[in-house]
Design goal:
The complex is a heterodimer. Chain A is an alpha+beta fold. Chain A folds into two domains: 342 residues, Rossmann fold, CATH 3.40.50.200; 132 residues, Galactose-binding domain-like (Jelly Rolls, Sandwich), CATH 2.60.120. Helices cover 15% and strands 22% of the residues of chain A. Chain A is built from eight helices and 24 strands. In chain A, the strands form seven sheets. Chain A has a six-stranded parallel beta sheet with strand order 4-3-5-7-10-11, with helices on both faces. In chain A, strands 16, 17, 19, 22 and 24 form a five-stranded antiparallel beta sheet that branches. In chain A, helix 4 packs parallel to helix 5, helix 6 runs parallel beside helix 8 and helix 7 packs across helix 8. The termini of chain A are far apart. The N terminus of chain A is likely disordered. The N terminus of chain B is likely disordered. The two termini of chain B are 12 Å apart. Chain B has two domains: 41 residues, no CATH class; 143 residues, no CATH class. Chain B has four helices and ten strands. In chain B, a hairpin with a 4-residue loop joins strand 7 and strand 8. By secondary structure, chain B is an alpha+beta fold. The chains are: A alpha+beta, B alpha+beta. At the A-B interface, helix 3, helix 4, strand 6, helix 5 and strand 8 of A face helix 1, strand 2, helix 2, strand 9 and strand 10 of B. Strand 6 of chain A pairs antiparallel with strand 10 of chain B, so a sheet runs across the interface.
Chain lengths: 539, 188
């Protein structure tokens, strides 16, 4: 048990086991030959014995602890600061939608998950057990992440045990690609059974350390393949965690250094639903990582010791799951509800509906900015907190904007201003440096995503604050200044045609003047603003 | 595992607890900046002795890696790579069948290693027969397709697969060719 974890036993163990789980000591792979035994592979301290029993009917005893679903203020939070999930359940609970959990391992035999399992569809990539359909946890002390994630998406409802997922009748597929962390396994998991899996849930990414972390081209190729061909051309839905890197470190003067989701190459590209976290009062938690790439937030832990209750290893439950790891599967669950209500939604529809149906939390926060179509955007919150009830209602009547094939793309001219970036003066004055470009003749009248490619030469790239403003005068904050940790590095990574992404311009028109502004915020290093360009996506 | 668990916040708590990030445990509670790692900006300095560097093609970009002489990666069936693959250089393999690869670090200092295999992106979608013929024409051995454009090709554990990837990239038959990297991902 992890320190601080509230690990609980099934409250009614004698009544309800869908699967009885037997734990062995160090087991051998040979046990997998026994028909009712599931092996995680060699050198594991967990193994599982399946015993088929009927799923019972009854209320879920831990539902009251799941404030993220129904927040009544039970732990001192603000009533109503939740996903509004109960309001959606009268319409759908996610049946007919397959959700693939890509994680370290998933305890598919958990009594609250097994009823929703798609038989034979999961895959283990773990070295000793490649090709198994049981990507179950191997080491009790380590492989606990994916099981917690899965429960938040789709733990079974009304089965008289444990918790409830956001989409409790959605179908579960598990891929343990992070157990190997090979590029080939990640790419395989992101594209496997893409005609059958609707949603690929990913509570993982790059380190939250302020450095620029590009995603390999193979990752992007897998994502673009899924968007184009998945779900019979409607596109696979990729949901990723936005990160926990706010205040990832402090300076000698105790100033927080913040990561930004735009420094993570997995989430700064087209087609990713990027998820942020809010606490039980609807506020950004102290780890809440900002970014123009954020789509919507969902509940998680925060300033008070109130975490998220979900499934845990060996058929039990925990109450302190946290971070954007917890928020992300909640949004995957909301999307499962949307797709259950309207299976014809494309990946583009899903993103737009999430944004339009989101609930504006923390309404007095100064970071809320006016956006197109009457929306508001906040670099801490995206378009707000996912609202399952409103999203399902909107999805039910939605007229599709089409999939990848119908998406329009416009590329701006490549600008090469080669402007010097003045250092901060001794009295602390920074000088912004700007360059503009004009887009004309682009037939995008409603932007869905913007990619901004930026090149600068600088002796400490972390000094730079970068933003872009649109013809509508809407500003995307792309990079904040920060100091990066590390003993072997002299900077936070080179801006060499670095791709930033932005959801902030959703619904705007492409044509007009766009301006990029770069400001050196810290003394001691200088450089040049070499070049930039835009790629706009929309309809 | 270099992961931060889904249980916050790894990098900061790891420093606090004096342990690797993977070992950091969740401590939900009020923020206290005094418990978080302190960083300072270091001036850019010339590297006195350049480390051994390697280049690889990430799509159209060329990325540089430096050899980390202190570590090696052990790949073998039964090992759990994400958290146990990195070992001190010269250490005895846990598994006699383990294959050992050098550890390289990218610009951010993140480790990568080479468990074997090369991933190629085809210039256009192809059926299986066509893709196998094209890969064979390039002098490589196709293993299996991940999509109609993405293929895994046979390659050795270690720097041999990096060399093969660079050769395939230079041959120009594919949109891109890169090693099948092992690289830790962070659980959020």
């Amino acid at each position: 048990m992890r320190p601080g974890a509230a690990l609980r036993s099934n409250l009614l163990p004698g009544l309800l086991a869908v699967v009885a789980i037997t734990f062995a000591g160090c087991s051998n792979d040979s046990s997998s030959t026994q028909p009712n035994t599931v092996s995680a592979g060699s050198n594991c301290d967990l193994s599982y014995t399946l015993t088929q029993n009927p799923v019972l009917i009854g209320s879920d005893p831990l539902l009251g602890d799941q404030w993220h679903l129904i927040n009544t203020g039970q732990n001192g939070g603000t009533p109503g600061e939740d996903l509004r999930a109960a309001g959606a359940w009268s319409f759908t609970r996610g049946s007919g939608v397959r959700v693939a959990i890509i994680d370290d391992a998933i305890e598919l035999t958990h009594p609250d998950l097994y009823p929703n399992l798609v038989p034979g569809a999961s895959r283990s990539y773990r070295n000793g057990n490649r090709g198994s359909v049981w990507p179950v946890p191997c080491i009790k002390a380590e492989d606990d992440h994916g099981t917690a994630v899965a429960g938040l998406v789709l733990a079974r409802d009304d089965n008289a045990i444990g918790v409830v997922g956001v989409a409790p009748r959605a179908s579960l597929v598990g891929y343990d690609a992070l157990s190997t962390s090979y590029d080939v396994d990640i790419a395989d998991a992101l594209t496997r059974d893409s005609q059958l899996n609707a949603i690929y849930q990913n509570s993982w990414g790059s380190p939250d350390d302020g450095h620029l972390h590009p995603a390999d081209a193979v990752f992007s190729a897998a994502i673009q393949s899924g968007l184009l061909t998945g779900r019979q051309g409607k596109g696979s839905i990729y949901v990723f965690a936005g990160g926990n890197g706010r205040c990832f470190a402090v300076s000698k003067t105790r100033e927080c250094q913040d990561d930004n989701s735009n420094f993570d190459g997995y989430v700064n590209q087209r087609g990713i639903v990027t998820v942020c976290a809010v606490d039980d009062k609807g506020m950004s938690p102290w780890y809440g990582e900002p970014g123009a790439t954020l789509t919507v937030c969902a509940p998680s832990s925060g300033s008070s010791p109130v975490g998220i209750t979900t499934t845990a290893l060996t058929g039990t439950y925990e109450s302190n799951f946290s971070g954007t790891s917890a928020s992300t599967p909640m949004v995957s669950g909301v999307i499962a509800l949307m797709l259950s209500a309207n299976p014809s939604l494309t990946w583009r529809d899903v993103r737009i509906i999430l944004a339009r149906s989101a609930r504006r939390n923390d309404p007095t926060d100064a970071g809320w900015l006016k956006a197109a179509d009457g929306l508001q955007f906040n670099h801490k919150y995206g378009f707000g907190v996912a609202n399952a009830q409103a999203a399902v209602a909107l999805a039910s009547t939605w007229s599709s904007v089409g999939g990848s094939a119908a998406m329009k793309t416009c590329d701006s001219p490549q600008r090469t201003p080669s402007l010097p970036l003045p250092d901060v003066t001794p009295n602390g004055v920074s000088t912004p440096v700007s360059d503009s470009l004009s887009i004309a003749g682009c037939d995008i009248t409603s932007i869905e995503f913007v990619e901004i490619f930026f090149t600068a030469t600088h002796t400490y790239s972390g000094d730079l604050k970068v933003s872009v403003s649109s013809p509508a005068a809407a500003v995307s904050q792309l990079a904040n200044a920060r100091i990066c940790e590390g003993s072997t590095r002299d900077s936070c990574g080179a801006y060499n045609n670095w791709r930033f992404g932005s959801m902030r311009h959703l619904g705007e028109t492409a044509n007009g003047t766009w301006t990029m502004t770069v400001t050196d915020m810290s003394p001691g290093d200088t450089g040049r603003f070499d070049g930039w360009s835009l790629r706009l996506y929309g309809r | 595992m270099t992961a931060s668990l889904g249980h916050l916040p790894a990098c900061a708590l790891a420093a606090l607890l004096g342990m690797p990030a993977a070992m950091a445990q969740p401590v939900p509670g009020p923020f206290d900046s005094s418990r978080i790692e302190t960083v300072s900006k270091r001036p850019a300095v010339a590297v006195k002795s350049a480390p051994t560097t390697h280049a690889w093609h990430d799509g159209t970009a060329i990325r540089m890696l430096s050899l980390d002489p202190t570590l090696e990666a052990h790949f073998a069936a039964g090992l759990l790579p994400q958290d146990r693959v990195l070992r001190p250089a010269g250490s005895t393999a846990r598994d006699a069948a383990a294959q050992i690869s050098p550890v390289l670090r990218d610009e951010s200092g993140r480790p990568r290693s080479l468990p074997g295999g090369v991933l190629v992106v085809l210039k256009t979608p192809m059926d299986e027969a066509g893709a196998r013929a094209l890969i064979s024409q390039a002098g490589a051995i196709p293993l299996h397709a991940l999509s109609d454009r993405l293929w895994l090709i046979q390659g050795p554990v270690g720097l041999g697969s990096l060399r093969l990837a660079n050769q395939l990239q230079a041959a120009g038959l594919f949109e891109s060719a890169q090693p099948n990297w092992w690289m830790p991902r962070t659980l959020k």
